[in-house]
Amino acid sequence: MSRLAKTLRGLSSLVRNPWLLNHVLAADETAWQQRALAHTARGLTSHGLPAVPLTHFLTPDDHTVRPFAFREGGSLPTDLLLLRALARRVPDCRYFEIGTWRGESAANVAEVAAEVYTLNLPGEEMRALGLSERYIELHGFFSRPLPHVHHLHGNSATFDLAGLGQPFDVIFIDGDHRYEAVRTDTRRVFEHLVGPTTVVVWHDASRQPGQPRWEVLAGILNGLPATATGQLVQVENTLCALYSPHPLPTHTFDPLGDPTTWFEVTVRPQQ
């Protein structure tokens, strides 16, 4: 049987029995998990990277996230709180991110950082992908009005990152989450933008807090250069993985353990 015939037969089976897709996805996830777990030196287990509590990065000043739209495709409030806290720790912080979307992360960090750079695909490239004009218009909704947020347009796989100058203090990678894109973004960021004290954060390294997204982890691990000898961790209560040039207090995450840390959330609608 030809390859095409096999493919058509498989698609026909999925149409008749949609539940078979669960087996396909599970097998794919297992393959990515095995690929990631090959990096034994990083301390991975079947529960993912070593864990660090979100509270390790917070100070009493790190208690507000704004803006936050509570809409599809964005970060968790705790993800944004992490980024704000990391930027606040560095005087005159220079922040760079891949993936603008509505501009919530850039706008949150802009309150505490000196300079914010956000890189996103140009409109024509998004149109070529079949994305709607309204979707394209929403990019940077919250961050466009802010004077010290620099909106860059280009493909992160080819954009002239070296032209941005000196290393950044905090970098947030939140672009295409497929393996090859994560690997490429990681490799290029460390090649051009990471200095001795840079902290790098990857979004959607977990599907839910504490549930690894193995394709993303495999991309991160295979994109990290051998010279990146810092610590790679998952940040509890977020969807983020984090690279720290300095040692962090870690533990093995237990998804069924007691929630020893919980948060009080106050919501104030804004117009």
UniProtKB/TrEMBL annotation:
Keyword Methyltransferase belongs to the record: yes
One MF term in the entry's GO annotations: methyltransferase activity
Any Gene Ontology biological process: methylation
Entry keywords, A to Z: Methyltransferase, Transferase
InterPro entries: SAM-dependent_MTases_sf (IPR029063)
The protein's name: Class I SAM-dependent methyltransferase
